[in-house]
Write a structure and sequence with these properties.
By secondary structure, this protein is an alpha/beta fold. 31% of the residues lie in helices and 17% in strands. Helix 1 packs across helix 2. The structure holds 2-phosphoglycolic acid (PGA).
Length: 243
């Protein structure tokens, strides 16, 4: 039986408030916390909520150290659709440091391995926040990723490239490769918060939480971690067995 905590809230706005609560609580407890913060549609409203709290003086992230959990390869820091651009647009509050892999790195593999080393040297994640891809990926650990998969360059799954076609402008513009922290880097976090909303995520959320852990659904490896909270809206939780 997995020790994971499953919190279901009515809707996306509530999920954003609860996610902001959890992230702000981690930073209040440890102002220089090391945070993994994801990109994607899922966390945008939560980041806006955190920015609002900071503007009102209710939170302070100026000592928090933020690491991106993945980035595209074979692009630049200003290519629309990259995570570098995402953070500039959506993480609109001051942090102590924001580390993002360089999409223009000449040797992407060497670069992401060094990036993961830097994360470990900074103490590893106090809290790693994740979204989940519809194919079960966490960061860019695509289906087939083992529990001990290290930081690496990956060939992006067709589903992952399709999910980003709009932000890059077209499917052809989406890079074929990404750089990702490994499943092992994520599982080394002291606490993990997974966010998912919407009916489109219901099938994969159920598989990740209820099926035996396997490389087919990388998010299912989270069942092996001692401090995981899933924060779901009712639509994303709609296929879970009653609990
Ligand atoms: P999404 O992406 O938040 O845009 O659904 C999640 C993910 O791919 O991890």
């Amino acid at each position: 039986m997995s020790p994971m905590q499953i919190d279901v809230v009515p809707d996306e706005p509530t999920l954003a408030v609860r996610a902001a609560d959890a992230i702000c609580t981690a930073v209040l407890a440890k102002p220089d916390a090391v945070l993994g913060l994801p990109t994607g549609n899922t966390p945008i409203r939560a980041y806006r909520e955190i920015a609002r709290r900071i503007e009102r003086g209710q939170a302070d992230f100026r000592r928090a150290i933020v690491y991106a959990i993945d980035e595209f390869a074979d692009a630049t820091r200003t290519t629309p659709g990259t995570n570098s651009v995402f953070y500039r647009e959506h993480l609109r509050f001051p942090v102590g440091a924001l580390h993002i892999p360089n999409p223009a790195a000449r040797d992407a593999n060497e670069h992401i391995v060094a990036f993961a080393d830097a994360l470990r040297r900074s103490g590893g994640f106090d809290l790693c926040v994740l979204g989940i891809g519809r194919n079960g990926h966490i960061a860019f650990n695509e289906p087939g990723s083992a529990a001990d998969a290290p930081a690496c360059v990956v060939d992006l799954a067709p589903a992952s490239r399709e999910a980003h076609a709009a932000t890059f402008g077209s499917l052809d513009a989406v890079p074929a490769r990404g750089m990702t922290l490994g499943v092992d880097d994520i599982l080394a976090a002291r606490a993990i918060l997974v966010l998912a909303h919407g009916a489109r995520k219901a099938t994969i959320v159920r598989a990740a939480i209820e099926d035996a852990p396997s490389a087919e659904v990388p998010a299912s490896w989270l069942q092996t971690h001692a401090a995981v909270t899933w924060l779901l809206d009712e639509a994303a939780a709609s296929q879970l067995a009653p609990r």
